Amino acid sequence: MPALPHHRLAFPLCPLFIFAFPIGNVAYAGTLPPGAPCSPAHDHLDLISHKFVSQCSDLTFCRTSNNDTIGDFNNTLSGGEGGNGTCVPRLCRRDEFPFGYDHEEDIYGVDVPPDLPPMCAQGMYCPDEGSGCKSVLLPGQKCQMGRDEQCDQRYSSAWLSEPKDTVNSTIDLAVSSRDGDGGAVGSSGSDFGTEKVFRIPSKLHANELGADELKNGTGGANQTVRVLCLLQTCTVARIGVNEPCIFENTTYASYDAQGVLVEYNIYRDNCISEGGLFCGVESQRCERKKELGRACTTDVECVSFNCMRGICTRSPETPYAVAPWQYALTILTVVGATASTFTILMLLHKRHRARRYREIGEYYSEQLRFRNAIIALHTNAAEVLDSESDLPIMHRYQKNK
């Protein structure tokens, strides 16, 4: 099997919901209203967006006398079963705010909330078509594509082993080898295609299991495991290192704001995620994820989940680690900048104060000169007047003598 192209995006074990876009021969969601005749043979997943598509609208599903039960989940992949049906309102919903349900106005112009179908209770799930809540599935049962919540996660607390007695309840987890067009791949010469059983302790009922840790079969520490819908089968992700594994690589496509087609690769496998493992595309065995600087081809191979130009690099959300010398340099820079600013402001203030003091001194000196000049002028004028007024008296006095 060829390696995955590294230029496509990949995300580990996370649900992705993308609506159908008009691409080529993409089948659009149906528009038949409630009560219209339909055929479940048209129920399928869109090849590009993997959105559930049927003849009925997003608010209804095609109901027949045969789809009241779980049925064959492969029907949503290649088309539903034949027969005639009727579009009826959906009986359940997955999301709190489902698509297609708009607010309406009454005769007084007041918004009326839409009549939403109920959400399923704990231990139940709503299928893609919304045909009603169903009990979660046991490992080994068929599930719909990418719907991990359809599998009973409480079974992740049990462990895989050979049964020691007939008292223990068993669930067949046989993974048969399939052909190469999208099925699980068995490993020849190993026990991967042989039957294994999901053993539940006799003292606990299956529905009472609530723990989420699994004892590693090799004697290692407890590992957190998941039950996921892998290749349309509820599978316990508990495969250890160097053990045969299966993986699922799904490509989603959509248009961005500029109208450019963007593809996303969703890679999933049944290796223990807490152990830093992934299912190798070529080896089909659980391998340890690679550290920074190691060669890689896809994001899933790296611990950082970021393969850039064939090298494992830090993920964009990784916090930057500041070295001690960088802290010291930053502190010295801040202190130096503060001291420099204080010194410059103090010198500028001192120069401004000296210039102002000099201006005030010059002003008062000038005022004193003006005052002295005025006093001198006044004194001279008074002396002149006195001399002129005294001159005739002196002259008369001399004549009388």
UniProtKB/TrEMBL annotation:
- Transmembrane stretches in the record are 325-348
Where does the source fall among the domains of life?
Eukaryota
| Signal peptide as annotated in the record | 1-20
Q: Which UniProt keywords apply?
A: Membrane, Signal, Transmembrane, Transmembrane helix
Instruction: Give the protein name, as stated in the record.
Output: Uncharacterized protein
Q: What is the lineage of its organism?
A: Eukaryota, Fungi, Dikarya, Basidiomycota, Agaricomycotina
